[in-house]
């Protein structure tokens, strides 16, 4: 694992300042409380220094120690431990198994001489349970075997409050509230001295190396575990952090979040509590003291005192980012949350995420970069600005300062590698497409969409058209120049269209179709233009290009008039007469448009119907006269003509009859004669000129549609009479007459037909007709009988109801009120309704003349 510089070791107290020329005097313990530094020596002296910290702008802070005084405690043993109780202004000194109370400033013992005797080691309870601010809770390991004692220490007295026995001899102790964390001879335990409950943590062999028990936070301890592990344990007996792996020869440990610092005979090692990795190693020989005091970490040899000065976390994070150690930087940044105010942390953390994102981006780790950019709420223009010419020229964006990365542009980042550059562009396309509809884009959607358009155009990407036909904020000037540069003329037309410059868009598309500019985006661009003009609301624009689309294709071009939206047609935006005038030069288009008016819109105007019929007729005559003889097409046009002549009643019949004279179109002539009511003449044409008996029968059917049955019967009788007239084709007509009778028996009056038929016809030939006639007659008679029976039944029911009503008496008094006018009856004349309601006769009469008036029911 690569090292980072988390701490710098600086000297605090030099040997000369401490001991002068006393070579045999060694430092045994230290204590620091604010600016006050205390040192205990092996010759029973306590030294008091005042620390002065001096910040250095370009490096770690330096410390100057000023000696205040020193005092001999009156023993011949070393000073084993020092602990400051600032609330009492007392220094607790352990020497010769006795804890003395001395004044923090003059080091004088308290006048009462209060002390705790028989202590091997002690610890202060930094999470006291008494709540008394003028006392300190002290826990000692007693010289009595397997005994722990709890004391309350005041300014000038001490008071024992608890004595606890242990299963093994305790070697080290730390206190938190009612909980003791104890290192016994073979194991660590958590003991609640209030309840007496103990919980084993894990075994440990004290003979191999000394135990370490360190309170590092509320209800949490750091312990030296087996196998060179620094173990974390809570008062609940569980570990909420993974262990750190330090040297097996560790003799001291301290915590300066987010680091655990360990001391062995040769080194100081720094380990992260966040990812459990060793981060720094500092050579430090002959060290034997490592302690942290309110965030300040002090180490000492027997001859000097040193302070580990932490580098600012932001500096550490930036160093990690500079080394491309993104994950470590992010872990450290998250861990720094507890030490930095919330708002400042959020700003700092967002920037770190953005920096990390650019590092991952430079390594082409696009998925990781995207998540970091999103989490860091990156101003996406920072990313766009790496790509030359993507930001609009009107953009006022300037890069963040200090910069988030070290790259001038994409060319420098990829070192000219075209494959890497293409990957970076594909990533930006994807990222911009994702963020353009999110809050990230708020405030600079123009920059994002313009950059996206440029990327799409350069890469010939299909999404270019999707971008332009949906809501977008592409800046017209920049985007138009870029699209023209990359010959995306169809897309440029869409851009003009989106910016309400329809005329420019259509002209550009027309130039593409005409071949003036080259763009193969759409092979059906002509049809697209027609469709665009069809839905265009600008009438002048449609008229401007109407001739162009009709010249290209009459059948397709006419759709700009025939397929307009229904709502626009209802507004009558285009006058049909104007359109017809325009289409005079385009006969095929004119036919299509008249069909639209007559058949689709069903306009009831004689001029349109007559004009369409004439055009059909002219086309039929041209086809018949054509040498190529396109029979199928002529049949289709003739069918259209015949349908129009049959269905429409608005064209000028006489005018068309004149046009048909000598044209050789007998079927059409027959239809026109039928429109004039000249049915016999029409049927004569069909029977004698065309010899089309099926057409004659169909003529009778369509001519009688919507008319009364006698009219249809007259038509069929007329046709039958024509068949029965003697002539050159008497036999053929006789067969047609028999078929007519047998197929349409119900359409004839049988009695009249029998009088018309020749006597020579046999009954066998007429059997189907006669059978149908008799069946029809019987059916009609029975239907009448049924109707008569139903009428009689209904009359009987009404008669019964009437008799029933007449059989009951009606009581009329002056208290009865008319149900219509609510006035009393003045004479014994009234009208009674089926529901029993009584009304005046004049009220009933007025109701009959005014049906909207209220009614109590049907009158009896």
UniProtKB/TrEMBL annotation:
Pfam entry (one): Vps39_1
Compartments, as annotated in UniProt: Cytoplasm
Query: What's one GO-annotated cellular component?
Result: membrane
CHCR-type repeats, residues: 564-728
List the GO biological process terms: autophagy; endosomal vesicle fusion; intracellular protein transport
Q: Which residues form the signal peptide?
A: none
Q: Any idea where the CNH domain is?
A: 24-297
**What InterPro entries does the record point to?**
Clathrin_H-chain/VPS_repeat, CNH_dom, Vam6/VPS39/TRAP1, VPS39/TGF_beta_rcpt-assoc_1, VPS39/TGFA1_Znf
Which UniProt keywords are listed? Cytoplasm, Protein transport, Transport
The protein's name = CNH domain-containing protein
The organism that produces this protein has a lineage beginning with:
Eukaryota, Metazoa, Chordata, Craniata, Vertebrata
